Every structure is written in C-alpha cells, then in structure tokens.
Hints:
Shape: globular
Helix content: 25-40%
Strand content: 5-15%
Largest sheet: 5 strands, mixed
Order of helices and strands: EEHEEEHHHH
Strand order of the largest sheet: 2-1-5-3-4
Amino acid sequence: MTIKFWLNGKLTEDTIAADTLLLDYLRTKRCYSVKRGCETANCGLCTVLLEEKPVLSCSTLAARVNGKHVTTLEGLQAEAEEFGAFLADQGAEQCGFCNPGFIMNVLAMMRERKDPTEEEIREYLAGNLCRCSGFVGQERAIQAYLTWKREGESV
C-alpha cells in the first residue's frame, strides 16, 4: 500500500506492507530517536507526535499516518536542545536512553497546556519509564523550563 504524509515537515511518499509498524518505518527513514523498548506499549521510548498529539509508534500502524503530520525528535531539534539543557542542569539525564520519548511528551505537554500543574506534569510523564530515576530531577527540570519560558514570554 502507498502512504503519503509529512515527516518532520517534509512530504513523504512510500510503499509499505499493510502491517508495518510506524516505529519500524520511521527507523528506516533515519529517525533513530524513535526507540524500541518494551514492545508492549508501556515504556514511552517510541513516542512521536501524530498531528501534534503524542502516540506510541510501536503500537501504531504506519498506514494510519497517511495524509497526516508525524514529528519525531529529529524534527524538534531546537526545542529538544533547549529543554535538554534543563535536564542536564538538574542532573536528570543519567543514561539518556529514555530521553527522546520523555522529551517528546514534555514538548507535547507544552503545546497542549500553557501552565501545567504538578499533577498534569505527572500525568504526561506516566507513560514514560526511566530505569535510572524516579523522575525527581526530570520534574525539577520541567519546572525550571516552564519558569524560564514564562519569564521569556513576559519580557
């Protein structure tokens, strides 16, 4: 079957098997930030944005993106680097394996919520597993990032 969609802002057309998972397809397109973790849709490592909403690419058929916009971390480098500096500053990056999916969810949250509460932040993090930490450093990084963004917007 043929699919035609926007990948990180670039119109893409390809022929795929009907059962191709989005995760596998994206990795063939050099989107290596999209990682395979649990293979049970529980860890968040494969998170991408589909029409600006976070989805797990390991449980999404590539055919579903036909006519839509898909964004991976590769398409959000400036934002990812900006937020990544806050993760590093809070000592929250540790091994970094979970960072791409984690960052995708944080950036999705920033698009959907102007001023998220601590509870909303935890809800957005709920689908991401981090084997190195309990998200304490990550939550501090998010709070610092939100404060920085708010201060920048009020200038």
